[in-house]
Design a protein that fits this description.
42% helix; 2 domains; alpha+beta; 311 residues; five-stranded antiparallel sheet; 5 strands; elongated
């Protein structure tokens, strides 16, 4: 009869404190949890001059990446080097780099700002390292860009400031240079989003001024009430009767907005009305609004001749 093969024995680790044991420097009477273990320090060699030079060179490349990208995009655009494969610069950037139009021009504008900052000897040692840090500066004149960047660097303790610090510095300098608020309560204006991320998705909306501040206005749109800087408003210069008519339209839309069961189709109609560039509804728009009001119980019946003072 064949003898079955033996199973291999599992290796075991001894808890011995022999000289070969890693914990041999711990006395047997000591509690291992509270024992002190000697660890040999590893000396980290200092960088050589060549390594320091390489490090600085590579850091500068990282810091200037967005700047170099913006400069390259500007040259590709200005020389129309995309023309052999694409009809427009925007299509080329989307296909080649995955950039939409907004991103491409953000990088180009940022490169222009950095070039302007280079012209100021006082700030040549502390320059932007990311596009978002200079985005708030793109709407300013060259001298203002330099002043704001210097103020932001000081606020950041002599270091490269964050985009928020720069944005706050821009807001302060704009408030100092703005003319007094000339808007009036009840005036109908258009919202200009520009580079204000807080107004994203609201650019083009008409709004009604409800409160006047020193450099801002509280306004209400078809779906929200908020405070907006005067630089982000543009008056439609409507007559008083037209402003009153827009106030009535706004009240009707906002009353519908309070309904939690508002369907997507109805919401789309209201959003369209929130972007009007005229002080009245067309006959079709008035009928659509009346149908929605009737459907959600705002009015008891649809007016037979439901239309606004179409001009």
């Amino acid at each position: 009869m064949n003898t079955p093969p033996r199973k291999p024995k599992k290796a075991t680790i001894s808890a011995s404190t022999s000289p070969e044991s890693p914990n041999s420097d711990i006395a047997p009477s000591e509690n291992p949890a509270s024992a002190t273990i000697d660890v040999n320090a590893v000396e980290v060699p200092e960088l050589t001059e060549d390594e320091q030079r390489d490090r600085l060179h590579l850091e500068r490349k990282v810091e200037r990446a967005f700047f170099e990208a913006g400069k390259a995009l500007a040259e590709l655009r200005d020389r129309r080097l995309y023309r052999s494969t694409h009809s427009t610069f925007e299509e080329y950037c989307k296909d080649r780099f995955g950039y939409n139009r907004s991103r491409s021009y953000q990088l180009i504008d940022a490169a222009i700002v950095v070039d302007n900052l280079h012209k100021c000897p006082q700030i040549v040692d502390i320059l932007p390292t990311a596009e978002g840090q200079v985005r708030p500066l793109t709407k300013l004149e060259t001298e203002q860009q330099q002043q704001v960047w210097q103020a932001a660097v000081e606020e950041a303790g002599g270091k490269v400031p964050t985009g928020k610090i720069v944005k706050d510095a821009v807001q302060r300098i704009m408030e100092r240079t703005q003319v007094p608020n000339s808007y009036q309560v009840g005036e109908v204006c258009q919202i200009l989003a520009k580079d204000n991320l807080d107004l994203r998705g609201k650019g083009g909306y008409w709004c009604i001024v409800t409160h006047i501040g020193e450099f801002s206005c509280t306004v209400k749109t078809w779906n929200v009430e908020m405070t907006v800087g005067v630089q982000h408003l543009k008056s439609f210069n409507y007559l008083p009767d037209e402003c009153q008519q827009m106030q009535q339209i706004c009240d009707r839309i906002r009353k519908l907005r309070e309904n939690e069961n508002l369907e997507e189709a109805a919401r789309a109609v209201l959003e369209h009305l929130g972007e009007l560039k005229r002080p009245y509804l067309t006959a079709v728009e008035e009928k659509l609004l009346s149908v929605i009001e009737f459907e959600y119980g705002i009015i008891d019946e649809i007016p037979r001749n439901s239309q606004s003072s179409n001009k």
